[in-house]
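Structure in, sequence out. Go:
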């Protein structure tokens, strides 16, 4: 019979190591306060995102940043019959990464949702993201960014389906919450899809 240990062992959180990459989803002006599709509290994730960036950069591990990069007539926009206000139009200020996000040299930028006729929430949809990750021999993705209930969720679910391990950095994501529970539901869906959740303080920063 196994002995019960007196104290529960600390939860094992995967650590950034060979084969890990940091994936920053849509940390762009338009999703931050003052932007066209501001996610409540979005800028509060930036210190945690930057701390993760320092860890990955310090360990020479890949850092990838996706950006929502819509054509001006994208079907996602209300005036084209879509659900959202005009946001993250290619080349606009709103589409730039938040100025406080410190992206180091070598960060790979992946532009998504470029085809005006197609809705695309997953960073893998119509991009070179998977190819880049395979080239870099990445097996585990640590994910931060916006928005929990749309692009973070879809990107994480795609990553899981493609066989990547995913660690969702819960203090470094925020949701739109069109309905108040959307982010909680999204996190539950990502866990059900195979993602594990951690906070940046669980990482040996
Ligand atoms: C997103 C709505 C529209 C996201 C992008 O990044 O989550 N949400 N476009
Ligand atoms: Zn968009």
């Amino acid at each position: 019979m196994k002995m019960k240990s007196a104290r529960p062992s600390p939860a094992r959180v995967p650590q950034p190591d060979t084969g890990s990459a940091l994936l920053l989803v849509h940390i762009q002006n338009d999703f931050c306060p003052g932007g066209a599709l501001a996610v409540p509290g979005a800028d509060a994730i930036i210190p945690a995102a930057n701390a993760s960036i320092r860890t990955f950069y310090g360990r020479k591990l890949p850092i990838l940043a996706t950006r929502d990069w819509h054509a001006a007539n994208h079907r996602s926009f209300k005036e084209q019959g879509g659900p959202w206000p005009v946001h993250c139009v290619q080349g606009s200020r709103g589409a730039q990464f938040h100025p406080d996000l410190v992206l180091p040299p070598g960060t790979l930028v992946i532009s998504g949702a470029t085809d005006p006729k197609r809705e695309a929430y997953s960073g893998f949809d119509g991009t070179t993201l998977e190819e880049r990750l395979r080239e870099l021999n990445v097996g585990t993705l640590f994910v931060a960014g916006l928005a929990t209930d749309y692009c973070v969720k879809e990107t994480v679910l795609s990553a899981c389906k493609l066989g990547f391990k995913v660690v969702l950095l819960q203090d470094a994501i925020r949701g739109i919450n069109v309905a108040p529970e959307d982010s909680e539901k999204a996190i539950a869906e990502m866990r059900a899809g195979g993602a594990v959740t951690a906070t940046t303080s669980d990482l040996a920063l």
